[in-house]
Amino acid sequence: MTVDRPLRLGVLGSGKGSNFAAIADAAALPGYPAQPVLVMADIPDAGILKLAESRGIPARYLPPGRFRTKLDEEAEAAYVAALQAAQVDLVVLAGFMRILKGEFLRLFAGRVVNIHPSLLPCFPGLAAWKQALDYGVKVTGCTVHYVDQGVDTGPIIAQRAVPVLDGDTAESLHARIQEAERALYPAAVAGIARGEIAVKGRATTGFRP
Ligand code: GAR
Question: Per residue in 28-55, pLDDT tens?
Answer without folding.
Answer: 999 999 999 999 999 999 999 999 999 9
